Amino acid sequence: MDLGLKGKKAIVCAASKGLGKGCALALAREGVDLVINSRTKATLDATADEIRSETGVSVTAVACDITTPEGRAAVLKAAGPIDILINNAGGPPPGNFRDWSIEDWQKAINANMLTAIELIRLTVDGMIERKFGRVVNITSGAVKAPIPILGLSNGARAGLTGFVAGAARETVRHNVTINGLLPGPFDTDRLRGNMKLQAEKAGMPYEAFSKQQAEKNPAGRFGTADEFGAACAFLCSVHAGFITGQNVLMDGGAFPGTL
Q1: I need a labelling partner for 151 at 20 to 30 A (CA). Which of 96, 114, 139, 207 fits?
Q2: To 5 degrees, how large is the angle CA 10–CA 135–CA 63?
Q3: Are the C-beta atoms of 181 and 137 separated by less than 8 Å?
Q4: Which residues is 204 bridged to in the sheet?
Q5: Which residues of the chain carry a pLDDT beneath 50?
Q6: Given this model, what pLDDT does residue 166 score?
Q7: What is the pTM assigned to this prediction?
Q8: Which of 229, 160, 158, 241 is nearest to 188 (CA)?
Q9: Are 157 and 113 in contact (CB under 8 A)?
Protein backbone atom coordinates (compact mmCIF):
# COMPACT_ATOMS: atom_id res chain seq x y z
CA MET A 1 0.00 0.00 0.00
CA ASP A 2 1.26 3.46 -0.92
CA LEU A 3 0.77 5.57 2.21
CA GLY A 4 0.88 8.81 0.23
CA LEU A 5 3.62 10.34 2.34
CA LYS A 6 6.46 10.86 -0.13
CA GLY A 7 7.88 14.37 0.20
CA LYS A 8 6.26 15.05 3.59
CA LYS A 9 8.35 16.23 6.52
CA ALA A 10 8.26 14.85 10.06
CA ILE A 11 9.69 15.50 13.49
CA VAL A 12 10.31 12.27 15.37
CA CYS A 13 11.27 12.73 19.02
CA ALA A 14 13.55 10.39 20.94
CA ALA A 15 14.40 8.66 17.67
CA SER A 16 17.95 7.43 18.18
CA LYS A 17 16.83 3.94 19.19
CA GLY A 18 13.88 1.83 20.24
CA LEU A 19 10.33 2.70 19.25
CA GLY A 20 11.20 6.21 18.13
CA LYS A 21 13.79 4.84 15.73
CA GLY A 22 11.28 2.29 14.47
CA CYS A 23 8.84 5.09 13.66
CA ALA A 24 11.53 7.21 12.00
CA LEU A 25 12.63 4.30 9.80
CA ALA A 26 9.09 3.43 8.79
CA LEU A 27 8.34 7.01 7.76
CA ALA A 28 11.65 7.33 5.91
CA ARG A 29 10.87 4.16 3.95
CA GLU A 30 7.73 5.96 2.75
CA GLY A 31 9.77 8.91 1.51
CA VAL A 32 9.31 11.24 4.48
CA ASP A 33 12.13 13.69 5.23
CA LEU A 34 13.01 13.72 8.91
CA VAL A 35 14.19 15.84 11.78
CA ILE A 36 15.09 13.50 14.61
CA ASN A 37 16.28 14.20 18.10
CA SER A 38 17.62 12.58 21.24
CA ARG A 39 20.00 13.60 23.98
CA THR A 40 22.93 11.40 22.96
CA LYS A 41 24.65 12.88 19.90
CA ALA A 42 26.77 9.88 18.93
CA THR A 43 23.84 7.46 18.92
CA LEU A 44 21.60 9.97 17.16
CA ASP A 45 24.13 10.67 14.43
CA ALA A 46 24.63 6.95 13.83
CA THR A 47 20.88 6.48 13.48
CA ALA A 48 20.65 9.43 11.07
CA ASP A 49 23.42 7.94 8.93
CA GLU A 50 21.71 4.54 8.94
CA ILE A 51 18.37 5.99 7.81
CA ARG A 52 19.98 8.12 5.10
CA SER A 53 21.95 5.16 3.78
CA GLU A 54 18.93 2.86 3.61
CA THR A 55 16.26 5.25 2.35
CA GLY A 56 17.96 8.27 0.76
CA VAL A 57 15.69 10.77 2.51
CA SER A 58 16.91 13.96 4.17
CA VAL A 59 17.61 13.40 7.87
CA THR A 60 18.53 16.27 10.19
CA ALA A 61 19.75 15.20 13.62
CA VAL A 62 19.35 17.61 16.54
CA ALA A 63 20.95 16.46 19.78
CA CYS A 64 18.98 18.10 22.59
CA ASP A 65 16.61 17.59 25.48
CA ILE A 66 13.16 17.92 23.91
CA THR A 67 11.62 18.42 27.35
CA THR A 68 13.22 21.87 27.61
CA PRO A 69 12.14 25.06 25.81
CA GLU A 70 15.63 25.33 24.32
CA GLY A 71 15.47 21.79 22.96
CA ARG A 72 12.05 22.29 21.40
CA ALA A 73 13.15 25.58 19.84
CA ALA A 74 16.21 23.92 18.28
CA VAL A 75 14.17 21.09 16.77
CA LEU A 76 11.45 23.38 15.43
CA LYS A 77 14.01 25.75 13.92
CA ALA A 78 15.75 22.88 12.15
CA ALA A 79 12.46 21.47 10.86
CA GLY A 80 10.53 24.47 9.63
CA PRO A 81 6.98 23.67 8.50
CA ILE A 82 6.12 20.02 9.16
CA ASP A 83 3.37 17.61 8.20
CA ILE A 84 3.91 14.92 10.85
CA LEU A 85 4.80 15.07 14.54
CA ILE A 86 5.74 11.97 16.50
CA ASN A 87 5.83 12.81 20.20
CA ASN A 88 7.98 10.50 22.28
CA ALA A 89 9.93 10.79 25.52
CA GLY A 90 11.39 8.33 27.97
CA GLY A 91 9.14 7.39 30.82
CA PRO A 92 9.78 8.38 34.44
CA PRO A 93 11.27 5.86 36.86
CA PRO A 94 9.21 3.26 38.71
CA GLY A 95 8.58 3.45 42.40
CA ASN A 96 6.07 3.93 45.21
CA PHE A 97 3.90 7.04 45.13
CA ARG A 98 4.65 7.63 48.82
CA ASP A 99 8.23 8.39 47.89
CA TRP A 100 7.55 10.92 45.12
CA SER A 101 7.82 14.65 45.74
CA ILE A 102 6.04 17.45 43.93
CA GLU A 103 9.25 17.94 41.96
CA ASP A 104 9.13 14.31 40.81
CA TRP A 105 5.58 14.80 39.58
CA GLN A 106 6.41 18.07 37.86
CA LYS A 107 9.30 16.46 36.00
CA ALA A 108 7.14 13.53 34.86
CA ILE A 109 4.27 15.76 33.76
CA ASN A 110 6.63 18.07 31.89
CA ALA A 111 8.30 15.21 30.01
CA ASN A 112 5.30 13.00 29.28
CA MET A 113 2.43 15.47 29.01
CA LEU A 114 3.36 19.13 28.67
CA THR A 115 6.20 18.67 26.16
CA ALA A 116 3.90 16.87 23.73
CA ILE A 117 1.15 19.46 24.20
CA GLU A 118 3.59 22.29 23.58
CA LEU A 119 4.92 20.71 20.39
CA ILE A 120 1.37 20.21 19.18
CA ARG A 121 0.54 23.84 20.00
CA LEU A 122 3.53 25.11 18.06
CA THR A 123 2.90 23.03 14.92
CA VAL A 124 -0.81 22.34 14.57
CA ASP A 125 -1.90 25.65 13.07
CA GLY A 126 0.57 25.27 10.21
CA MET A 127 -0.82 21.80 9.56
CA ILE A 128 -4.35 23.22 9.55
CA GLU A 129 -3.37 25.91 7.05
CA ARG A 130 -1.86 23.30 4.73
CA LYS A 131 -4.87 20.96 5.17
CA PHE A 132 -2.75 18.00 6.20
CA GLY A 133 -1.31 16.98 9.53
CA ARG A 134 -0.70 13.87 11.55
CA VAL A 135 0.27 13.77 15.22
CA VAL A 136 1.05 10.47 16.90
CA ASN A 137 1.80 10.44 20.61
CA ILE A 138 3.76 7.41 21.76
CA THR A 139 2.38 6.85 25.26
CA SER A 140 1.97 3.49 27.00
CA GLY A 141 -0.31 0.52 27.44
CA ALA A 142 -0.55 1.80 31.03
CA VAL A 143 -3.09 4.35 29.75
CA LYS A 144 -5.49 1.42 29.39
CA ALA A 145 -4.30 -0.69 32.31
CA PRO A 146 -2.31 1.29 34.91
CA ILE A 147 0.86 -0.33 36.22
CA PRO A 148 1.15 0.23 40.00
CA ILE A 149 4.90 0.85 40.10
CA LEU A 150 4.67 3.31 37.19
CA GLY A 151 2.37 5.82 38.84
CA LEU A 152 4.27 8.85 37.51
CA SER A 153 3.88 7.56 33.97
CA ASN A 154 0.26 6.52 34.51
CA GLY A 155 -0.70 10.00 35.65
CA ALA A 156 1.25 12.06 33.12
CA ARG A 157 0.32 9.97 30.09
CA ALA A 158 -3.33 9.82 31.10
CA GLY A 159 -3.28 13.62 31.27
CA LEU A 160 -1.95 13.84 27.71
CA THR A 161 -4.59 11.35 26.58
CA GLY A 162 -7.35 13.47 28.11
CA PHE A 163 -6.09 16.60 26.39
CA VAL A 164 -5.90 14.88 23.01
CA ALA A 165 -9.44 13.54 23.36
CA GLY A 166 -10.70 17.10 23.06
CA ALA A 167 -8.16 18.66 20.71
CA ALA A 168 -8.36 15.85 18.15
CA ARG A 169 -12.05 16.55 17.58
CA GLU A 170 -11.30 20.19 16.78
CA THR A 171 -8.55 19.61 14.21
CA VAL A 172 -9.87 16.66 12.22
CA ARG A 173 -12.17 18.74 10.00
CA HIS A 174 -8.95 20.29 8.64
CA ASN A 175 -7.44 16.86 7.86
CA VAL A 176 -5.25 17.06 10.95
CA THR A 177 -5.49 14.00 13.17
CA ILE A 178 -4.08 13.35 16.63
CA ASN A 179 -3.84 9.82 17.97
CA GLY A 180 -2.06 7.80 20.63
CA LEU A 181 -0.02 4.68 19.95
CA LEU A 182 0.20 2.63 23.13
CA PRO A 183 3.06 0.13 23.37
CA GLY A 184 2.90 -2.89 25.60
CA PRO A 185 6.01 -5.07 25.97
CA PHE A 186 8.40 -4.26 23.14
CA ASP A 187 11.95 -5.50 22.84
CA THR A 188 13.70 -2.21 23.68
CA ASP A 189 16.54 -1.12 25.94
CA ARG A 190 14.03 0.14 28.50
CA LEU A 191 12.21 -3.19 28.67
CA ARG A 192 15.46 -5.12 28.93
CA GLY A 193 16.74 -2.81 31.66
CA ASN A 194 13.56 -3.15 33.73
CA MET A 195 13.56 -6.93 33.31
CA LYS A 196 17.17 -7.20 34.43
CA LEU A 197 16.22 -5.50 37.68
CA GLN A 198 13.18 -7.75 38.07
CA ALA A 199 15.25 -10.84 37.32
CA GLU A 200 17.73 -9.89 40.02
CA LYS A 201 14.93 -9.41 42.55
CA ALA A 202 13.46 -12.77 41.56
CA GLY A 203 16.85 -14.47 41.81
CA MET A 204 16.66 -15.69 38.22
CA PRO A 205 19.07 -15.48 35.27
CA TYR A 206 18.04 -12.67 32.96
CA GLU A 207 17.64 -14.91 29.90
CA ALA A 208 15.31 -17.31 31.71
CA PHE A 209 13.29 -14.49 33.23
CA SER A 210 12.97 -12.72 29.86
CA LYS A 211 11.77 -15.89 28.15
CA GLN A 212 9.26 -16.49 30.94
CA GLN A 213 7.85 -12.97 30.62
CA ALA A 214 7.61 -13.19 26.84
CA GLU A 215 5.72 -16.48 27.04
CA LYS A 216 3.16 -14.91 29.39
CA ASN A 217 2.02 -12.61 26.60
CA PRO A 218 -0.79 -14.07 24.45
CA ALA A 219 1.45 -13.59 21.41
CA GLY A 220 4.18 -15.60 23.12
CA ARG A 221 6.77 -12.91 22.42
CA PHE A 222 7.66 -9.25 22.74
CA GLY A 223 6.87 -6.76 20.01
CA THR A 224 9.46 -5.35 17.61
CA ALA A 225 10.29 -1.75 16.82
CA ASP A 226 9.71 -2.39 13.12
CA GLU A 227 6.10 -3.47 13.57
CA PHE A 228 5.47 -0.56 15.92
CA GLY A 229 6.90 1.81 13.33
CA ALA A 230 4.71 0.34 10.60
CA ALA A 231 1.58 1.01 12.67
CA CYS A 232 2.77 4.56 13.31
CA ALA A 233 3.36 5.13 9.59
CA PHE A 234 -0.16 3.96 8.77
CA LEU A 235 -1.68 6.39 11.30
CA CYS A 236 0.29 9.13 9.53
CA SER A 237 -0.87 8.08 6.08
CA VAL A 238 -3.39 9.69 3.74
CA HIS A 239 -5.61 6.67 4.40
CA ALA A 240 -6.01 7.45 8.12
CA GLY A 241 -7.74 10.82 7.94
CA PHE A 242 -10.92 9.43 9.56
CA ILE A 243 -9.04 8.11 12.60
CA THR A 244 -8.59 10.70 15.33
CA GLY A 245 -8.66 10.91 19.11
CA GLN A 246 -8.00 7.18 19.31
CA ASN A 247 -5.58 5.16 21.41
CA VAL A 248 -4.25 2.21 19.47
CA LEU A 249 -3.01 -0.46 21.86
CA MET A 250 -0.15 -2.67 20.64
CA ASP A 251 0.47 -5.24 23.34
CA GLY A 252 0.10 -8.67 21.74
CA GLY A 253 -3.31 -9.08 23.38
CA ALA A 254 -2.10 -8.62 26.96
CA PHE A 255 -4.91 -6.25 27.91
CA PRO A 256 -7.87 -8.55 28.66
CA GLY A 257 -10.69 -6.08 28.00
CA THR A 258 -13.40 -6.22 25.36
CA LEU A 259 -13.15 -2.50 24.52
Answers
A1: 207
A2: 45
A3: yes
A4: none
A5: none
A6: 97
A7: 0.95
A8: 229
A9: yes
